C-alpha cells in the first residue's frame, strides 16, 4: 500500500511555480511504478523508501528540479553526469525522461532494494606521499631519534607535521614550529599527540 506524507505535499506547495508540476509528476511516476513506496523527508528533501532503503529522492532549486536514485551507478550506470541527479537538471516537465525509461529504472532500483544490495561507495584517491621541505630534512639529519621516528611514520602523520610547518606565515613561526616538531619526534610523538588516548 502506497504511503503519502503531508510534508511532501507541503514541500511541493512551497516550491517555485515551475517546479510544482515537475515534482508532482515525479511523485506520480514513483507511486505508479512502486505502489508500496513510502514517502518521507530526509536531508530536507522528499525521499521515497522501498524495502527498507531509500529508493530515490527529488529536490527543487531556484531554477531546476533534481531527481536521483540512491543507487544511481547501479541503476543508470557509471556514465558521466552533471552532478544534478540521475536525469540532469529539469526546468520543465519536458525535461523529464520518457515514462517508460523512468519506469524501467525505478523497477531496477526496486529490485536492488529488495535484494538488499548496498550502494557502491567511491574510495577517495590516495594522496601522494608528502614532500619533505628542505629545512625539515636538514633538521632531521641533525637528530637521529627524530629522523627515525619521522621515517617510521605513515604518510598521514608525516603530512601533519609538514603542513604545520609550511603553513607558518612568518619565518620566526616556521623556525619555532620546526624546532618543536623535531623535539616531539625525538620523543616519538605524533603531531597531535596531546589528543591521542593513552
Detailed description of the structure:
- The chain has 2 domains: 6-114, Aspartate Aminotransferase, domain 1 (Alpha-Beta Complex); 134-195, no CATH class.
- It contains 8 helices and 4 strands, in the order ααββββαααααα.
- It has helices at 6-13, 19-33, 72-75, 99-114, 134-141, 144-152, 155-166, 171-186; strands spanning 38-42, 45-50, 53-60, 65-69.
- The chain has a 4-stranded antiparallel beta sheet.
- A hairpin with a 2-residue loop joins strand 2 (45-50) and strand 3.
- The protein starts with 5 loop residues before the first helix and ends in a 12-residue tail after the last helix.
- The mean pLDDT is 92.
How does the SSE layout of this entry go?
Elements: H1 6-13, H2 19-33, E1 38-42, E2 45-50, E3 53-60, E4 65-69, H3 72-75, H4 99-114, H5 134-141, H6 144-152, H7 155-166, H8 171-186
Antiparallel strand pairs: 1-2, 2-3, 3-4
What is this structure, in a nutshell?
The chain is α+β, with helices and mostly antiparallel strands.
- What is the correct CATH architecture of the largest domain? Alpha-Beta Complex
Structural class: alpha+beta
Indicate the percent of residues in helices.
Answer: 40-55%
The number of helical segments is: 8
Do you know the CATH topology of the largest domain? Aspartate Aminotransferase, domain 1
N-to-C terminal Cα separation, in Å? 54 Å
Number of domains: 2
Strand content: 5-15%
Number of strands: 4
Mean pLDDT: 92
H/E series: HHEEEEHHHHHH
Amino acid at each position: 500500500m502506497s504511503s503519502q506524507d503531508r510534508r511532501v505535499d507541503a514541500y511541493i506547495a512551497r516550491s517555485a511555480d515551475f517546479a510544482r508540476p515537475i515534482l508532482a509528476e515525479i511523485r506520480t511516476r514513483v507511486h505508479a511504478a512502486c505502489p508500496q513506496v513510502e514517502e518521507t523527508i530526509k536531508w530536507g528533501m522528499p525521499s521515497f523508501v522501498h524495502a527498507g532503503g531509500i529508493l530515490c529522492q527529488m529536490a527543487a532549486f531556484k531554477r531546476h528540479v533534481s531527481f536521483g536514485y540512491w543507487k544511481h551507478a547501479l541503476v543508470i550506470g557509471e556514465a558521466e553526469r552533471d552532478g544534478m541527479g540521475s536525469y540532469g537538471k529539469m526546468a520543465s516537465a519536458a525535461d523529464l525522461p520518457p515514462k517508460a525509461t523512468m519506469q524501467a529504472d525505478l523497477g531496477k532500483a526496486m529490485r536492488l532494494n529488495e535484494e538488499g544490495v548496498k550502494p557502491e561507495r567511491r574510495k577517495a584517491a590516495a594522496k601522494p606521499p608528502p614532500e619533505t621541505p628542505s629545512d625539515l630534512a636538514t633538521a632531521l639529519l641533525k637528530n637521529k631519534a627524530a629522523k627515525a621516528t619521522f621515517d617510521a611514520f605513515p604518510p598521514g602523520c608525516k603530512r601533519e607535521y609538514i603542513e604545520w610547518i609550511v603553513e607558518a606565515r612568518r619565518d620566526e613561526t616556521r623556525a619555532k614550529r620546526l624546532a618543536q616538531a623535531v623535539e616531539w619526534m625525538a620523543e616519538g610523538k605524533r603531531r597531535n599527540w596531546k589528543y591521542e588516548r593513552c
